[in-house]
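Entry 0007
Protein: Class II histone deacetylase
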Amino acid sequence: MTDDEITVFWHDRMLDHEPPAGTYKYPASPIVAGEERHPDRRERVENIKAMLDHAFTEATGYESPERATREELERVHDPEYLDWLEAFCADGGGRIEDTTTGANEATFDAARVAAGAAMAAARAALDDGDSVPYALCRPSGHHAQPDRADGFCFLNNVAIAAEEALSRGADSVAIVDWDVHHGNGTQEAFYGREDVLFVSAHADHGSWHPEYHPQEGSLGEVGNGAGEGYTVNVPLPPGTGDRGYDALFERVVNPVVREYDPDLVLVSAGQDAGAADPNARNLATRDGFLRLGEHVRRLADGTADGRLALVQEGGYQQSHLSFATLGVFEGLLDRRVELEQFGTDDPFAWLDEPTELVDAWLDEAVDHHRTYWNLE
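Output (structure tokens):
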């Protein structure tokens, strides 16, 4: 491990994944003269990398991950699904039936690299508390279920990382997912288990496909059997912004994770709750994401001896994704970065956040999860 403050696990192979073009994330429409590229485009992660190289030049180091092996993937995914995905991509890929998820010939290999990056970040967190391990993954993973692709995701990077940590001696892992979409695949992977706590805060979008995405992300989805109570879903109303996310952590995420007391904290870091994201309706800004970075850093320091790793998920307004992710690392490293022309501002922060609705929804979440956790 390096002496850098941020260790980015990255490989250019992840840029080769390319979903089919169409009308935004959907198939082409006759009322749209020119098809547009899918929102999961390579510029998303290229912009994050540019931000890190500019804002944290001396603090950032890169490591090239190994591809996840078949054995490592099968800790989470069914062999039959992996066979299908590999063959589907080898045949050129395409759109998966009537979903918004699509692949090309490079997707399976790129996804194996992304899964390997997440595993490497988890190992680094267990081995070295001096650097923040960050898996800059593409494609994302948290919607991928054990037996299917879903929501632009093919292999569940954070779930594979959690399994890697458990295989290396961790007794328990907490996954905090602040992506604006429910991490249904991660939930599915650990729904009956108590060795992985899954806390997801997300828009109240419900199920978006009866076959590929049946989970709703509702308060009532709490796990089953030995895992009952270890899935903690917190739906948030449209317009939730910086204050709402801060209250979410203070009232639910922080007390639950502290009570669970994991050996490792993993973050599904999707910055699509940002104020300009076209795939969401929330209002978090650079400052709000800074607070999220502060929260998870303190959680890891207070529960897991500083063992923390971030795994990149969504974020689809490619310019704002850089500002939002900058905020995350400003919070993690406890520093502000002055940008030419922008200073410490967020150029996309222009709407006021509704407050009473957020408070009411958080009251409901606290009341519901109090069955399992000491919440006030």
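Curator remark: The chain has one domain: 6-369. The first strand starts at residue 6 and ends at 9.
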